[in-house]
């Protein structure tokens, strides 16, 4: 009988249980406004830690999870041997000044009652708002200052995870959805991990409990009560529906019977065996039910080639969850407990502001703050009627900082985000783009830059020209410009006199 879960050293100073205990259910348990008693909650966590499940995952919005965990940590005098607390900071988009970032981290330290957060994981809603990269660099400074042990991100797609790494942010992990239903993390994101030595923390491996014997052969539920199941029922629906899901579940049950384990063990072992995955996060409802003994059984067996073939055959009967990891929070179909988040995203302040062109009252323009806009006398983008033209854009953060020096693919990702921000400020979307022009300095970068362009425009397919040039001012690897015909009226653009 396996008595303790497997452990993994992420760094010389950070070893974790390969099954992390997720505390998102605390928010669901407290949704009626009654918080869990912190000491009682800490007693429940102590039982997990005593069984070897001593790595806890939480977030700033998981109810009182940080406070409860802080009470547990206070019972351990030696920080080197106490349980590990991983938390997330999910600020609304806006300027990420040193003061803003420090305040966010300080609140985490206060709620946890510690001097250093073991792993601070950062979430960002919209990548066209470039302050996310500012925030990560400020977190890196706080890591150097000793307030953060390690930095991770959560729900980052492969392109932006790679961009942050290429820009010198010392990321250790990316926490994403990964399960028998949602297999996106096995694609480009895992390739980034293999190339950079970073790791994934996988959540949703049990699909909110749907990947268990309890749901095998059962009719499709019509009334889902808890937040976790509401979320993962959406994943099941978009992956083909209840019937294909039942076939995956039946295959997992067959494999479970073969090894004398549970369906949950099979589902978790499948995710845990992936080379990019450092650990899986299994949720806990404190004081209601525990599955520690069953979870330990997943360390006593291995999936063989026949098992993998059986599961892969059922995957072919499902649909791939669309997009990349984290897209479910940023674009349709919104696979969250609350469903459609478009209203939330639409209310996020734009990264750039538009202004009326003084000498042409019917025109609106956007400045991005680059030093060259004032020095050379141009704007980032301008809209006249329905036509929008975007100037040649490089991977410049703020006034003059080059992003991701030497990495054309990462620079292209940043450039495209900057172009999208300009479009949004002028009342347009990427779908309105009818032409792009791309300039690169090295033919060897064609694939990386084209892949970045395709991630945004793969379904839109505007006219495009890509050329290799002798050089770009400042040593940039790529520059892009765009033209669009907006389908929305000018009333969407702030600052136009008489718009309504």
Blueprint (SSEs and pairs):
Elements: E1 7-11, E2 14-17, E3 19-22, H1 25-29, H2 38-50, E4 55-57, H3 65-73, E5 84-89, H4 98-112, E6 117-122, H5 131-144, E7 148-154, H6 158-166, E8 171-177, H7 188-196, E9 199-203, H8 227-238, H9 242-259, H10 263-272, E10 277-283, H11 292-296, H12 305-315, H13 342-346, E11 354-357, E12 360-366, H14 371-376, E13 381-384, E14 387-393, E15 396-397, E16 401-402, H15 408-425, E17 433-440, H16 446-457, E18 463-468, E19 478-485
Parallel strand pairs: 3-4, 3-10, 4-5, 5-6, 6-7, 7-8, 8-9, 9-10, 17-18
Antiparallel strand pairs: 1-2, 11-12, 12-13, 13-14, 14-19, 15-16, 17-19
Helix pairs in contact: 2-3, 4-5, 6-7, 6-15, 9-10, 9-12, 15-16
| CATH overall fold name of the largest domain | TIM Barrel
Q: What order do the strands of the largest sheet run in, or round the barrel if closed?
A: 3-4-5-6-7-8-9-10
Question: Strand pairing plus helix content: what structural class?
Answer: alpha/beta
Please summarize the sheet with the most strands: 8 strands, parallel, barrel
Shape, per Cα inertia axes? globular
Measure the end-to-end span.
Answer: 70 Å
CATH architecture assignment name of the largest domain: Alpha-Beta Barrel
């Amino acid at each position: 009988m396996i008595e303790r879960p497997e452990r993994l050293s992420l760094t010389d100073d950070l070893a974790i249980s390969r099954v992390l205990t997720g505390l998102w259910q605390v928010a669901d348990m407290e949704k009626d406004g009654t918080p869990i008693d912190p000491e009682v909650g800490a007693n429940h966590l102590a039982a997990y830690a005593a069984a070897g499940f001593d790595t806890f995952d939480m977030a700033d919005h998981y109810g009182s999870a940080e406070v409860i965990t802080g009470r547990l940590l206070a019972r351990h005098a030696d920080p080197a041997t106490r349980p590990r607390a991983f938390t997330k900071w999910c600020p609304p988009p806006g300027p990420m000044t040193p003061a803003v970032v420090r305040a966010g981290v300080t609140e985490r330290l206060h709620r946890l009652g510690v001097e250093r957060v073991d792993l601070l994981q950062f979430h960002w809603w919209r990548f066209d708002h470039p302050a996310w990269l500012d925030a990560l660099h400020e977190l890196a400074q706080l890591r150097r200052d000793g307030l953060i042990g390690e930095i991770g991100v959560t729900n980052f797609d492969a392109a932006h995870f790679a961009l942050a790494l290429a820009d010198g942010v010392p990321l250790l992990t990316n926490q994403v959805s990964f399960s028998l239903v949602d297999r996106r993390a096995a694609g480009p994101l895992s390739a980034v991990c293999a190339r950079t030595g970073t790791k994934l923390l996988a959540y949703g491996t049990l699909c909110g409990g749907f990947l268990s014997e309890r749901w095998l052969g059962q009719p499709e539920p019509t009334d889902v009560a808890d937040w976790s199941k509401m979320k993962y029922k959406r994943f099941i629906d978009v992956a083909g529906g209840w019937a294909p899901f039942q076939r995956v579940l039946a295959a997992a049950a067959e494999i479970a019977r073969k090894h004398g384990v549970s369906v949950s063990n099979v589902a978790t072992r499948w995710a845990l065996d992936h080379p990019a995955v450092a650990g899986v996060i299994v949720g806990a409802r404190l004081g209601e039910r525990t599955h520690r003994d069953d979870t330990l059984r997943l360390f006593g067996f291995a999936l063989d080639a026949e098992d993998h073939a059986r599961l892969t055959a059922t995957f072919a009967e499902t649909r791939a969850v669309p997009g990349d990891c984290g897209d479910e929070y940023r674009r349709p179909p919104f696979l969250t407990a609350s469903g459609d988040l478009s209203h939330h995203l639409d209310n996020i302040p734009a990264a750039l502001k538009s202004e009326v062109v003084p000498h042409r009252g019917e025109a609106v323009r956007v400045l991005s703050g680059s030093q060259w806009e004032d020095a050379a006398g141009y704007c980032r983008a301008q809209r006249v009627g329905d036509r929008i033209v975007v100037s040649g854009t490089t991977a410049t953060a703020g006034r003059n900082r080059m992003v991701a020096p030497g990495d054309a693919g990462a620079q292209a990702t940043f450039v495209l985000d900057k172009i999208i921000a300009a479009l949004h400020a002028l009342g347009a979307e990427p779908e309105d783009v009818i032409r792009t022009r791309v300039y690169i300095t090295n033919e060897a970068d064609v694939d990386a830059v084209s892949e970045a362009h395709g991630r945004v425009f793969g379904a839109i397919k505007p006219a495009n020209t890509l050329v290799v040039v002798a050089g770009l001012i400042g040593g940039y690897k790529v520059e892009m410009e765009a033209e669009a015909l907006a389908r929305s009226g000018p009333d969407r653009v702030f600052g136009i006199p008489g718009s309504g």
